User: Fold this.
Amino acid sequence: MEIAFNAQELERVNKIKDHYPTEQAALMPVLWLAQRTFGWISPDVMQYVADLLHLPFAQVEGVATFYTMYFKKPMGKYHVQVCTNVSCMLMDGDSIYHHVSKKYGLKNMETTSDGKFSLEEVECMGACGGAPVVVINEDYYELSSIESIDKLLESLN
Assistant:
């Protein structure tokens, strides 16, 4: 598969770059666009972004590997993130994580064999007032329960 943005995505990259004083400053949102486009940040994607922004590969790799929001391997069509930090843990976030883990036979950062679901235990989603929080792809589900998450996951089948 060739790694390349289409014309519309390249236009988006240019708009992103226009918001920053340097191309280096645009790296994180361009990596985010690349992940949304290609599904994950492979070494080939890192090189493409480095070339696009005129940056050294090592700089792009350093950012992509430092931040956990950038996937370094393919994830499921539905990437389920369950917060188990203090507020969410106190509201049974850890029970939700273990339930989903057992239901799909997944450990942290694993994907089902059909590629449909992946699971990630996260430290904080920044939504403590709505604990426990579950995020599927980019959609937040606050005040979650095992029952509500089961219904949600079943609706994705």
